[in-house]
Write the structure tokens for this entry.
Amino acid sequence: MPPVPPTAAPARTAFAWNALWSVAVLAAGLFCLAAAQWGMAASETAPPSPVAATAVGPQAPRAAKKNVLYLNSYQPGYKWSDEIFEGIREVLANQTDPLVDLQVEYMDSKKYSGPILRQGLFDLYKYKFRDTSFSVVMVSDNYAFEFARQYAAELFPGAPIVFCGVNDLRPDMMAGRTDMTGVEERFDLKGTLDLALTQNPGKKRLIVIGDRSVTGIAIANQVRAQLPPYHDRLEWEFWDSYQLGEILGLVERVPADAMIFFIPFYQAIGDRFYSAEEVVAEIGEHSDAPIYTCWDFLVGSGTVGGRVLKGREHGRLAASMALRILEGTPVADIPVVAQVGDLYLFDYNGLKRFHIPESDLPLGSEILNKPYYFFRINPQIFWIIVVALVILAATLVFLVINISRRRSVEEKIRAQLSFLTLLLDNIPQLVFWKDRDQRYQGANKAFAAFFGLSDPAVVVGKTNPEVLPGWWDHAGMAEEADREVMRSEAPRRRMRLAFPRGDGEQAWLELNKAPLRDRKGQVVGTLSTAEDVTDKERLEAQLRQSQKMEAVGTLAGGLAHDFNNILTTIINSTEMALLDLAPDSQAAADLRRVLTASKRGGGIVRQILTFSRPSRENFRDADIAGAIMEATGLLAASLPGHIRLETDIQVVQAVCRADPNQIHQVVMNLCTNAYQALRGHLGAGGRGGVIRVVLCSTRLPAEEALLLDLPEGRYLRLTVADDGPGISPEIIDNIFDPFFTTRKDDGGTGLGLAVVQGIVRNHNGRVAVLSAPGRGASFSVYLPCGGDGDAALDGDDPAALRGAERVLFVEDDASLLETVPRVLAAFGYRVTAAPGAKEALAVLAKSGGDENAPGFDVVVTDFDMPGASGFELAQALLREAPGVPVVVVSGRFRDVRGADRPENVREIVLKPYDGAALHAAIRRALGEGGGATCRTF
């Protein structure tokens, strides 16, 4: 590698000095601009609140956490209560002694209220906080205050109540309550009316607009209490029972001598809710009368203004009271505070509309939306800006000079490295080299082609963020390796890092880095080579994945036997318990649900085995509509109220060759996936969501079938769609990969869609996904149509026949050995139990029968037992009692299928099983109910 040309050294020195000077000048300019911005902000910003200016002292020992519940009467986005909450957080959020855990509950009473909903909230909180105690309960506004008065003693026993934003607080509300204190919302209507009459001398009528909500009624009562002194100057009327459309019609006809006082309230028109700001804005557009208010968040939305209350101050004051209680002050020693608005706030547009001069405003009034004129800037700030602009202009000149000199240096370097460039461009590996400042000095064409660069020359003189702005996270590790090579002056080899190619495809590079030295042996940079080993990495990843799947399969197979024994015990014990109960009793219904869930648990075990080692052992011509309806029924009962599940079964007989349990699993996985997408999406949006499940019959033409890699013909199409955020194009190709998940922090395993694809492909079907960001996702499962359904398979039900035969039941599991004989006895059998093959042969020998008339009519044995397996026992029975049929039960079908089955084994029953399944297998083994054929359950 040739060294850096000597002719470039002086140019580099000059370039370095100019660069340092440019940086210094630029820093000075930025400092001046920051000083100017600080001066402007300081001239317009009030001093910080005393509550926020808390001194920071030495760090105290960490105190115990105190739970504080905040009941907000309204919903997020309502400015008044949002400002109260901000004030509360300013006081409590950064507390360390005591450490406060603040929990917020929104009661949404502006939109929804009434005794039924209030009772619903009570039931919700009673369940939700049954195991939680609170040191203080804070409530804001009248709805939450009344709720706390009624239910706090039962919901939060012993917890003090601190309220704020409460209107019309009467003595009787606090009578006998020593556990409550807080801040009363007492607005200054007199100050606002006096100001309004001064600004509008011709007004003689006052219209008060509000609603009949809990808070609206309380505020109206406060208004009425403050109006009597004006009886000789004003006539007033209250509009509190009108819809917004009626109000707009009325305000258009108000007389010229009227003005309006607005009480904040919401309005619902159709399916849309109008906020208080939107309501007053609509009234302002339709009315020629000036509108006044006493709440700061309404100023600027169509009102002129007034002497207003600030929600943030309410929250701070209430939080300070709560903090005193947490620090040990008794509630009785903290009196209720009646906070009165002391700020005059006006809207500049409202003042101009009604020709109210600013000189008529009280001293210290604030004006919103007031234009800012440049010529009003402080002269000192103006000159700072001018100086900053001059410095920046000088900086620009220096930067232009530096760029010119840098280009000259680049030309000299390019001339000396032309032969080297020609040589390197014919090397298939990526080759690039940098100086000590981590600036590229060159690269070959393979490097440019890999990263999608038009020409290797574009990297010269640039750093990684400049050359690869979209791949900085990937290039950071390589750059740190460059620094380590320069520090240690030793090479680093075979570093494997992931990089995206220029076309966006992920690739793996194996890098080798060595120090680059000049003629004197000094390290002046690094030389790097890289080889694309993506194919090798993918093969290794496939090997690791196959090993992982093999491990999953091994684990699943090991657990299946013991878990199926447990499920079989549960199923049979439940069946026995049902026999002792009235069929229409609640306990019987509960046990039937236990029975259904246990059977479904067995299906899940089979699905784990199916995922690790797919099989078709339970395939049959089945109507899958029932499995779909069962799955959607289970899901519908567990979904939250704001997510709706719609099911549309359009096929009378949805028959295909399938395992209904596996189809049930497909529906559950797809719907659960849709719910998870909706849950994350609706947490911020707040609207409802829909999951739609549709089953229909369709014919795939040749073109569509080719895209799905399916033969042309008729298929059942199962579609699960949602209206959530959709799937990002960057990950849609990976969603069916095992263990790929976007919910690692939320417990996602990445197996749901992989299981779906594995099941569907095992059914000779395909899964298609259609999605776009913001438009939801739709998964369509195509299954080949089958025969005429299950009707032909049902035949005579062997379970309908009762038995009276003698049964020898062999099982090493103690719980099954106790429950299954009782279940078979309920079907009429005479059962003898043995804990193993040796004991079973001993019992058979003592039964007194010979080989033509054995002591038992049938033997039911477990396959997997210590000492001897079920097949080994059956082989022994061929010698001892060759005429006795054998039924083998097992939790692992593949173990049974892989073994040599004796000829006297008539039936194989898979665990978990219920009494009916085992009874039916016995009848078939005895030659009844459809013949002695080997089938599984």
About this structure: The longest strand covers residues 506-517. Residues 239 and 246 are 10 Å apart (CA to CA). Residues 534-579 form the longest helix (46 residues).
